[in-house]
Amino acid sequence: xxxxxxxxxxxxxxxxxxxxxxxxxxxxxxxxxxxxxxxxxxxxxxxxxxxxxxxxxxxxxxxxxxxxxxxxxxxxxxxxxxxxxxxxxxxxxxxxxxxxxxxxxxxxxxxxxxxxxxxxxxxxxxxxxxxxxxxxxxxxxxxxxxxxxxxxxxxxxxxxxxxxxxxxxxxxxxxxxxxxxxxxxxxxxxxxxxxxxxxxxxxxxxxxxxxxxxxxxxxxxxxxxxxxxxxxxxxxxxxxxxxxxxxxxxxxxxxxxxxxxxxxxxxxxxxxxxxxxxxxxxxxxxxxxxxxxxxxxxxxxxxxxxxxxxxxxxxxxxxxx
Amino acid sequence: xxxxxxxxxxxxxxxxxxxxxxxxxxxxxxxxxxxxxxxxxxxxxxxxxxxxxxxxxxxxxxxxxxxxxxxxxxxxxxxxxxxxxxxxxxxxxxxxxxxxxxxxxxxxxxxxxxxxxxxxxxxxxxxxxxxxxxxxxxxxxxxxxxxxxxxxxxxxxxxxxxxxxxxxxxxxxxxxxxxxxxxxxxxxxxxxxxxxxxxxxxxxxxxxxxxxxxxxxxxxxxxxxxxxxxxxxxxxxxxxxxxxxxxxxxxxxx
Lengths: 321, 254
Prior knowledge:
The complex is a heterodimer.
Chain A: H1 5-14, H2 18-37, H3 41-55, H4 60-89, H5 101-113, H6 118-148, H7 150-163, H8 172-179, H9 183-207, H10 211-219, H11 224-262, H12 267-276, H13 281-309
Chain B: E1 2-10, E2 17-26, E3 31-36, H1 42-49, E4 57-62, E5 65-66, E6 74-77, H2 81-84, H3 91-96, H4 106-119, H5 135-148, E7 153-157, H6 165-181, E8 185-190, H7 193-199, E9 202-207, E10 211-217, H8 228-231, H9 233-247
Helix pairs in contact in B: 4-5, 7-9
């Protein structure tokens, strides 16, 4: 498997230019999940290995390996924090602009302690949730329709290719004109941005349902609605889940972009406020840290849900059973 | 009984036919194997027989009724078991999901599933997922699903082509056992001549575009055994005959 959804999403989150990256990621993710959803002979061979592991008694080494993996990951994080601290303390980076972690973390703890953190985080989260919901409510049924009707699929192919690359942030001025600098504007921006990955992944997923599965269902006389509900939708679910996870990352980027640029309340505004307060660089970084943690938690929860629902899929087999 | 009369299929208007004048009858409880070189139109034939696609000309009758869509008393076993089983359902779920649409109650479906899984030797694997099983066991699940559907006829498309030789022999004997115990007719497509002769009572040799070139009676003792049957001189004669028929120039349609 060349590209796993996880690494894809990481790329999205790391990127400084959300819109242009988003476009590439979507197509890449489609390719990635195609390979994931259609196991070739190599995947099949790997599967047998997984099978014996889940069937047999629990290996004693497995827990230890997991602990080791976690320990190494933690060591990496601690190492980088220590390095940052060192770089600032030795004056390699000017402390005026880069407060050391030993100041950022207390500042963050302060935000948590006096409850200042939760208002803006809640506002960012509100925009994120509403935007993704609004997009999904339209994109999912539309994607199912386009994916299952060949004519619609062909008719919309070029249209989608044309609309998708519009960077959502380019719509900010228009959105401000239409909605004003408020939550509606933020929700619109997020909804527009995440609409495409959800729609395209749904279309791909539905369209790529294995023909043998379709034939199997038809040969056993499943009526149309049953074929859609019991065969096509479950087999498209891994694609849709990837679409939602990409949407989650893009949604957060757009929420904070809207807050930074237009000043709708949320983490973004808190970052600019802390910046203009001047003497409190560590608070600004504490807010940036909050944004990062929020993204991390959102991604983690989505992955957990995915792992539960898609436990049968090649990318999760054996992990949770 | 399956009666196929003068069946033809042309995909593109004015194009080469994939099937032309296919004509044969499969009797009640008969085990018939169909062999043909690759690209001779076997897939087209199977898709038409199973009602997945309409033929351009001719008729198919199953138990006296014309086949226009997938018939209720036919079950299809695909070559690619890993793609025809639903990975999100358990083994039992895979076997039972079509039964609801055949009108069986939950209890009836559960009983049929249990019985079918027992018949293929997977009684204790109902709660596993297909991908936790070996290839041979996955194809057993597909066979169990077909059996639970309680068809009059079983259509099998090279079902053992992608398992190893040992598993293949086991599956062949399992199928013969099922055929003897259940009241079913089997139409089995394969490209393996040994398999065709070993399993069947009659081998139909297909030439391109799909039509029956020759029907060869397999007059071997009813009781088959992987070692003993294949040692018989008659077995060797029959496979030579099938091979010759496959390679024979086609005088009928040329």
